């Protein structure tokens, strides 16, 4: 999207790839680049965070991403919901809090809970033994 800010032309870009976070920025005619808010694929919490802290971090991240997706659509940088490439639709669904725990809708599934871990196989559970040296 093209625009002008303080008498300088710019190109506003939303770059999406299914395997990375989105990038949103402006490139000005002078070569200056300004980063703008973009949806984030992750969020952080401290090492001593309680379950309530984790839930709040997940909720705040999903809320932020929902707001940014709506703003990007209003600006014409995203197609209407459901009209993007499938991989980007999936990322938006997940980043906007669509994948939530059934028992607690405010909390996305955690890799730390047994019910959300990938199944293990017998060979993976075996300790790794280094080859003998002859």
Count of DSSP H/I helices? 3
Mean pLDDT: 81
Find the structural class using helix and strand composition.
Answer: alpha+beta
Any idea how many domains?
1
Order of helices and strands: EEEEHHH
Provide the helix percentage.
Answer: 25-40%
Strand content: 15-25%
Write down the Rg: 21 Å
The main sheet orders its strands as 1-2-3-4
> Total strand count, please?
4
What ranges have pLDDT less than 50 throughout 5 or more consecutive residues? 110-130
| Largest sheet properties | 4 strands, antiparallel
Envelope shape: globular
Question: How far apart are the first and last residues' alpha carbons, in Å?
Answer: 66 Å
Top keywords for this entry?
single chain, 4-stranded antiparallel beta sheet, alpha+beta, 4 strands, globular, about 130 residues
Protein architecture, described:
The protein is globular and about 50 Å long. Helix content is 28%, strand content 16%. It starts with a strand and ends in a 9-residue tail after the last helix. With 134 residues, it is of the alpha+beta class. A 4-stranded antiparallel β-sheet has the order 1-2-3-4, with no helix packed on it. It contains 3 helices and 4 strands. The chain has helices at residues 51-74, 86-95, 122-125, and strands spanning 2-5, 8-15, 23-28, 33-36. It has one domain (2-125).
Q: How would you summarize this macromolecular structure in one to three sentences?
A:
The protein is of the alpha+beta class and 134 residues long. It has one domain. Helix content is 28%, strand content 16%.
């Amino acid at each position: 999207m093209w625009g002008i800010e303080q008498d300088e032309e710019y190109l506003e870009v939303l770059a999406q790839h299914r395997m990375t976070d989105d990038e949103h920025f402006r490139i000005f005619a002078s070569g200056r680049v300004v980063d703008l808010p973009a949806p984030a694929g992750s969020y952080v919490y401290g090492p001593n965070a309680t379950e309530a802290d984790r839930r709040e971090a997940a909720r705040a991240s999903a809320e932020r991403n929902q707001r940014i997706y709506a703003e990007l659509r209003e600006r014409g940088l995203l197609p209407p919901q459901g009209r993007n490439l499938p991989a980007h639709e999936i990322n938006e669904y997940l980043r906007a809090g669509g994948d939530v725990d059934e028992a607690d809708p405010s909390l996305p599934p955690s890799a730390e809970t047994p019910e959300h871990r990938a199944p293990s196989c017998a060979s993976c559970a075996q300790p790794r033994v280094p080859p003998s040296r002859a």
